[in-house]
Amino acid sequence: MQILRAQELGMCFGVRDALAVLDREPAPADVTIHGELVHNPEVLALLDRRGFHRSGEAGRAVPATPVVAVTAHGISDRERAALLAAGKRLVDTTCPLVRKAHDAAQALAGEGRRVVVLGKRDHVEVRGLTDDLVAPIVVGGLGDVTTWPDARLGVVCQTTTQDEVAQELLAAIRRRNPHADVRFVDTVCAPTKARIQALLELLPHVDAMVVVGGHDSNNTRQLVLRAEHHGVRTCHVAHARELHADWFAEVRRCGLTAGTSTLPKTVEEVHGWLVRLAAGRVKHSA
Ligand code: SF4
């Protein structure tokens, strides 16, 4: 079996920088990570071992610790103000590209547009984006698109939305709202686009794909869906321990990619397992 890695894969600069900021925190026991830093169990276990507290989801109760870490997914200005008013010191690891999406949404609202966010309604990034807006609309799929009474609409995306999905939803919004002036700002982040593009280049050359990343990770799921959509058998694992030799029995060329919150170490462990499998050093079940 041959193993082909995507040209761009794994951890993005936004998550890497967020982890580096937390790494410099001298007293993790004083810090609550407000919401999941990333949807990746390996990363979360690492932070737990260092002694950080975790508050589950942002937007809920104010954490008890004196320091609160805002995750790469960001929070609303409203929530930031509430945390500061409660006397918390904020360690802000909001990704600059999420910040850019917030700025774009605010600018569209400033133009008198009702803002439409393309993304998952319950995702922490989308909640952060919408909490500062008046009557925002969240569109997670074609079923959410309808005719709105507004004469001016402004559309942005959750940063990990697939380009193709965003374009499809945008076209539907325009179709259902011919009376409206619709302005779209593409806020899909460059690392997400690069990983999708690298996957698309790899797919014609493989008969199976392994995608590494958290099972709740939006961008990892997008990589899986894209590979499956192209008819390539796809195995989604959070870490090497989830791999099974039997799955690869007929595979001749296996592609490898990973979501933006996957630790480099996890990618290398999966790659190492595949290399050992190809060399006949991993047993199939009897
Ligand atoms: S996926 Fe994109 S927006 Fe999210 S942290 Fe990474 S670079 Fe930033």
Share of helix, binned: 25-40%
Major sheet strand order: 1-12-10-11
Query: How big a fraction of the residues is strand?
Result: 15-25%
What does the radius of gyration come to? 21 Å
Amino- and carboxy-terminal Cα gap: 20 Å
The CATH architecture of the largest domain is 3-Layer(aba) Sandwich
Mean pLDDT: 94
Would you report the number of β strands?
12
For the record, what CATH class of the largest domain applies?
Alpha Beta
Which residue ranges are poorly predicted, with pLDDT under 50 across at least 5 consecutive positions? none
Small-molecule components bound: iron/sulfur cluster
Main β-sheet: number of strands, strand sense, barrel status? Answer: 4 strands, parallel
Query: Under CATH, the topology of the largest domain is which?
Result: Cobalt-precorrin-4 Transmethylase, domain 1
- The total number of structural domains is 3
- CATH fourth-tier homologous superfamily of the largest domain: 4-hydroxy-3-methylbut-2-enyl diphosphate reductase, catalytic domain
Task: Write the SSE topology.
Layout: E1 2-5, H1 13-23, E2 31-34, H2 41-50, E3 53-54, E4 67-70, H3 77-85, E5 89-92, H4 96-110, E6 114-118, H5 124-130, E7 137-139, E8 152-157, H6 163-176, E9 181-184, H7 190-202, E10 208-212, H8 218-229, E11 233-237, E12 253-258, H9 264-278
Parallel strand pairs: 1-12, 2-3, 2-4, 4-5, 6-7, 6-8, 8-9, 10-11, 10-12
The structure holds iron/sulfur cluster (SF4).
